[in-house]
Amino acid sequence: xxxxxxxxxxxxxxxxxxxxxxxxxxxxxxxxxxxxxxxxxxxxxxxxxxxxxxxxxxxxxxxxxxxxxxxxxxxxxxxxxxxxxxxxxxxxxxxxxxxxxxxxxxxxxxxxxxxxxxxxxxxxxxxxxxxxxxxxxxxxxxxxxxxxxxxxxxxxxxxxxxxxxxxxxxxxxxxxxxxxxxxxxxxxxxxxxxxxxxxxxxxxxxxxxxxxxxxxxxxxxxxxxxxxxxxxxxxxxxxxxxxxxxxxxxxxxxxxxxxxxxxxxxxxxxxxxxxxxxxxxxxxxxxxxxxxxxxxxxxxxxxxxxxxxxxxxxx
Amino acid sequence: xxxxxxxxxxxxxxxxxxxxxxxxxxxxxxxxxxxxxxxxxxxxxxxxxxxxxxxxxxxxxxxxxxxxxxxxxxxxxxxxxxxxxxxxxxxxxxxxxxxxxxxxxxxxxxxxxxxxxxxxxxxxxxxxxxxxxxxxxxxxxxxxxxxxxxxxxxxxxxxxxxxxxxxxxxxxxxxxxxxxxxxxxxxxxxxxxxxxxxxxxxxxxxxxxxxxxxxxxxxxxxxxxxxxxxxxxxxxxxxxxxxxxxxxxxxxxxxxxxxxxxxxxxxxxxxxxxxxxxxxxxxxxxxxxxxxxxxxxxxxxxxxxxxxxxxxxxxxxxxxxxxxxxxxxxxxxxxxxxxxxxx
Amino acid sequence: xxxxxxxxxxxxxxxxxxxxxxxxxxxxxxxxxxxxxxxxxxxxxxxxxxxxxxxxxxxxxxxxxxxxxxxxxxxxxxxxxxxxxxxxxxxxxxxxxxxxxxxxxxxxxxxxxxxxxxxxxxxxxxxxxxxxxxxxxxxxxxxxxxxxxxxxxxxxxxxxxxxxxxxxxxxxxxxxxxxxxxxxxxxxxxxxxxxxxxxxxxxxxxxxxxxxxxxxxxxxxxxxxxxxxxxxxxxxxxxxxxxxxxxxxxxxxxxxxxxxxxxxxxxxxxxxxxxxxxxxxxxxxxxxxxxxxxxxxxxxxxxxxxxxxxxxxxxxxxxxxxxxxxxxxxxxxxxxxxxxxxxxxxxxxx
Amino acid sequence: xxxxxxxxxxxxxxxxxxxxxxxxxxxxxxxxxxxxxxxxxxxxxxxxxxxxxxxxxxxxxxxxxxxxxxxxxxxxxxxxxxxxxxxxxxxxxxxxxxxxxxxxxxxxxxxxxxxxxxxxxxxxxxxxxxxxxxxxxxxxxxxxxxxxxxxxxxxxxxxxxxxxxxxxxxxxxxxxxxxxxxxxxxxxxxxxxxxxxxxxxxxxxxxxxxxxxxxxxxxxxxxxxxxxxxxxxxxxxxxxxxxxxxxxxxxxxxxxxxxxxxxxxxxxxxxxxxxxxxxxxxxxxxxxxxxxxxxxxxxxxxxxxxxxxxxxxxxxxxxxxxxxxxxxxxxxxxxxxxxxxxxx
Lengths: 315, 343, 350, 344
Known about the structure:
The complex is a heterotetramer of chains A (315), B (343), C (350) and D (344).
Chain B: E1 11-26, E2 31-47, E3 51-55, H1 62-69, E4 77-83, E5 89-91, H2 101-104, E6 107-110, H3 124-134, H4 140-153, H5 170-182, E7 188-192, H6 200-217, E8 220-225, H7 228-234, E9 237-242, E10 245-251, H8 252-257, H9 262-270, H10 310-314, E11 320-323, E12 326-328
Parallel strand pairs in B: 3-8, 3-9, 6-7, 7-8
Antiparallel strand pairs in B: 1-2, 1-4, 4-5, 9-10, 10-12, 11-12
Chain C: H1 2-6, H2 9-26, H3 28-31, E1 52-55, E2 58-70, E3 77-88, E4 90-100, E5 104-112, H4 134-170, H5 172-187, H6 190-199, H7 207-238, H8 241-248, H9 253-290, H10 301-306, H11 311-316, H12 324-345
Antiparallel strand pairs in C: 1-2, 2-3, 4-5
Helix pairs in contact in C: 2-4, 2-12, 4-5, 4-7, 4-9, 6-7, 7-9, 8-9, 9-12
Chain D: E1 14-25, E2 28-40, E3 45-49, H1 56-64, E4 71-82, E5 90-93, H2 102-110, E6 112-115, H3 129-140, H4 145-158, H5 164-167, H6 177-189, E7 195-199, H7 207-224, E8 227-232, H8 235-241, E9 244-249, E10 252-258, H9 259-264, H10 269-277, E11 328-329, E12 335-336
Parallel strand pairs in D: 3-8, 3-9, 6-7, 7-8
Antiparallel strand pairs in D: 1-2, 1-4, 4-5, 9-10, 10-12, 11-12
Helix pairs in contact in D: 3-4, 3-6, 4-6, 6-7
């Protein structure tokens, strides 16, 4: 966690110059002139003149108090700028993960049980495509198809008329309608990967004696498969949640840009280019924290579903 | 430790107070929470030209002992005095790693698993010649000749030299392993369960080969095994291990016919005899082998021993020579009459 | 390993595809017929001109000339092919000067039109907004994108094998430190990490500098996977009996590493490397697509696709999406090839 | 087809006739079981012995119809004779049943129980021991969870597991090897099968634990009156446990007979050589063993004629390598598949 915060800070500090430089450039671009004194005053105001470690400590101290600083470009508190977008990022990511699981699990099981069947080959091939097509490209292609075939703009999370509307049932329903497509685009690569993991895990497990034993006890085949090897194969599967979350979240940045989804992605890109350090730093930090949480969750899940880990050391 | 009473014999290997403890690490910080006493104060010696077998059930420390002697792993404490071919005696256990190399030529190992012990990517020649190459022995042609000679010695055709191990059966692979072990004319061969992974009919072939080579090349074997029938076929003397300690050691015949330790008795009785007319009443031990990380008090065997008395629960017995050449670690060794197996 | 790989038909086909793509990389200048930067506002967003192979029953490849006029309603230029105006396409035609393989100066190109006026020229895949020829740019983009993958993987490989090897071989404190570093690097979402690093590149850097900086950045994450593979193989191989046998035979540490350990996991490394290349290509493409990677005037697939970023542009000129086809094909081919290699590398696999 | 051992006792509980189970692989067909015939006498222990690759385990799996792809039964019959006690009296040919069908599933676990060599991996690592035993009981008997649990506890107690109520809720990896194998036996016997197939039940265990498990099996047989098919490569275990022995070599039964006859008057050259070549605890110290020449042929290139002929000391050229001998009775009892006893 600590390492993540340092790294986030380092990353946002890496760009040469700071926001003020950009600001000055913008100002001169629009014809006004910012004097050196003014720039210095601005730097002082935001503490940008301090040595790096002081800046870092001040930043951390602020965050610990729940203050994420000001988004310089927007002249609004970071928390406010990020607010809704973060929430929507989560919604989109979770939707993508749910999609991934719903699709990957059954297909993975089918592929393993009917190894080398036509369905297995199709699943494997689709999986490969899913892996090979970068999500932003998939988004582009789908957008294009949507536009030419249905003459519909499939981007965004809300219909135009509801985008600025306050939250309500209608807007929620609107969101639900718009959600499947980004979820599909974001989830496809992960789905492909999970199908392969599930298939490989399950194939390993299918030959184990306990499966034969279960069969020898007279269990129906569906129960033999679903109760035993699938259950065991789920364990390594669960540990993938940890990296699935950050994977999806970071994937959402590019996809959001293409589909113009109101998530933190485009915001981060703009902030990075404008060197808005509080905003970018907060976003990177939050993403890092999400990763850590994801890893932690998958560890917990693993602990819950795998008694071997639960009882380790208790003997 | 007393001598064996056989005056003219030469001690090739003398192991004194060998110990190997493995730390048990647990949790996030890998803290050491205990120790597995895999080998706990083991002393024995091997004479030149003989076969000493270490027998015991899984986890008794016999393999660890063998690997400590070869310095494949470094023992926690103790001495393993080895008499080199030039007559000098060195302590292998305390030798710095850099000085082990000349010694390695004199002690070699035969492995249990004929599959994982041969590198699948190298030819028979590469495998068998490896010790020669590593020790810079001979020219290339001399190595080829030597490998051919070795292959013939173990009953393989020299023409197979260019093949890879996957073309061979388990028994043939074990022969390759033996050829590799013999490449540098070692005096001591440590054989770790050399036949337990093989089929019955092949076991006999390998055992015969080992006996023949011993006579032919004046080899000394330290034979590690769990199968008492196999042990009886190859050894001069047998040491029985239980939870990291030697509980009994004697000449093979004496140990099998007149064991003095209750564990040896139970072990012998538990071996299924391939003769339906001998379905004797077996001694079935209760319970499980003690945990080497948390052994019981006193004699480690007492919870399963049907002769146990109070002393066994409190005092740890020492390995004593109760008759010439017969060492037993049991408080009641002198008073009990135990059942062995007949001829 | 080779014969097992050959049994894998898809992987073999993929290998051929990959090979062909790298042939394009080597011969990009030859295959292109106009300099990638030649722009002409007059010819912006021309649609692709399909090559007609036969003319009156004879093999006479030609394209139709395009007649442009401005739509009175939308004020956009609309081009219609004019079947009457046949522009002959020649093989090994003369064009701009270049050095073949960087050595042989020549001006011959695979195809081209010779000596035609400016408006009668060839745009097999159309042009972009600035009127640059998409086909020629695609050739150069292929060159950049595919070499960036290779260079990136080479860097990752060096880092990964070195650090993974140290980690697996020596263990102890070094292992712990390297493992922690890997964990931290992996726990950071990659795209923000790249974005942060890429945004840090100074604007005034030259194309070459940025090229290498981007390769460095994308290999920064790539090496962790390779290091893990190397370390894992080292650890599992160290447990094999044949390694102990070699040690007992008196082999030195170096001999054990190079005659026993390395050959045993070399195939795994090759497979892992093959699988890492497509990831690198995707990374570069994504970053450039975002405008954080290579920047014009450099040309890569990502840069090319950047023009296809908005739907309106796409709807009018869908050929801008064409560069995504080679991306998908190459990545698929690499994946199949890597998969085949991985299957073939595992001596104990079914 | 001549019946091998059929003495005056009641009809054998299980008769395998000319069973052929082949594995169809890319590289060729492995004829793992190739015309095996034998009878399993009621309430006795039948030992099936042979070296690796002789098809003994595949035979066991064929009986239960759990041979995995690419293996398939391609011929022969497996007749199970159930008695009235189970309410489903009569003869049924297992080879003719649908392996995934209801009837076959009722037979598995219900009529025939199976225990394996690897007690560790024979239990699911993520389900408790009790979960799996109770599941089996409920599958075959129409009882409540509570009743099934009670029965499971009883079974664990029967096989000598201390504190059975507690062990029921533990996982297999929490038990020691010996206890695990006991739990495995309890699970296999939980629905009162008439036949127990034990596939190398003690191979993974130490000798002292092996003695415990063999003792337990004998005790349970006396008590429940069941039939045991004991598959092992260990001739010592066979001698100690079995009433009747089947010796297999390369997918065929080379000899069947009462244990005493097999060990003291073996007829087939393979049986004779095998018995001579095993290291014995009763042997004189440091003696060479008679060996069988050569090694077991690779499954892809089986010798023609009698599969043992290339290694046989009594090989008769022109006969043994031309045609395959069949299993026929010799003198008063044992069936032997060898041209020495019944010339072609």
